[in-house]
Amino acid sequence: MEVKVVDITGKETGKTVTLADNIFGIEPNDHAIYLDVKQYLANQRQGTHKSKQRNEISGSTRKLHKQKGTGGSRKGSIKNPLFRGGGRIFGPQPRDYSFKLNKKLKSLARQSALTYKAIESNIVVLEDFSFDTPKTKNYSSLVSGLKLANTKTLLVIADANKNVYLSSRNLPKAKVITASELSTYALLNASKLLLTTSSVKTIEESFAK
């Protein structure tokens, strides 16, 4: 699949980039995408939720009244979960929500997400660029030139570039990552995928390993 290369103003450069069919043109696997996104979201959870059980509540352990003869239910102490201020029954406890997936499945999920972007014509290839200074105005002009000012975009660059990253940080609908940080969730969370010519090569090399 051939895609025209444009500059940061949105003008065509006359160059084209061929996107590999074994990465951007496979048969998408929706279940692999589901599992990869599920793992990503699960790994974001802190799992630090905690409620106190009756043995952790401060209070007297004195038996409130005798066991039998009152006509009411038996009550061991004021820390009974049925009382206000008592311990919680089966409350949440700290736990780790993360789980593992096979590398091949994660790779298949990313390839499927990239294929969907290609099928829907939501991939824009930019020639390599950089900013002299980190300014939000620079990145804002870039997305405006591409007519994507009100669109959620994901820019994938080959290597870390502090000026480009800092320029995009204040824009709520813009995100910049390196090719090594590319994830299925990030791909699906963006409406338009912006790739630089060098990041295309880096992505293809990473999947070839």
UniProtKB/TrEMBL annotation:
GO terms for molecular function: rRNA binding; structural constituent of ribosome. Residues 45-78 are annotated as: Disordered. InterPro entries: Ribosomal_uL4, Ribosomal_uL4-like, Ribosomal_uL4_dom_sf. GO terms for cellular component: ribonucleoprotein complex; ribosome. It comes from the Bacteria. Keywords: Ribonucleoprotein, Ribosomal protein, RNA-binding, rRNA-binding. SUPFAM superfamilies: Ribosomal protein L4. Gene3D superfamilies: 3.40.1370.10. It holds the Pfam family Ribosomal_L4. GO terms for biological process: translation. Belongs to the universal ribosomal protein uL4 family. PANTHER family: 50S RIBOSOMAL PROTEIN L4, LARGE RIBOSOMAL SUBUNIT PROTEIN UL4M. Part of the 50S ribosomal subunit. Forms part of the polypeptide exit tunnel. One of the primary rRNA binding proteins, this protein initially binds near the 5'-end of the 23S rRNA. It is important during the early stages of 50S assembly. It makes multiple contacts with different domains of the 23S rRNA in the assembled 50S subunit and ribosome. This is Large ribosomal subunit protein uL4.
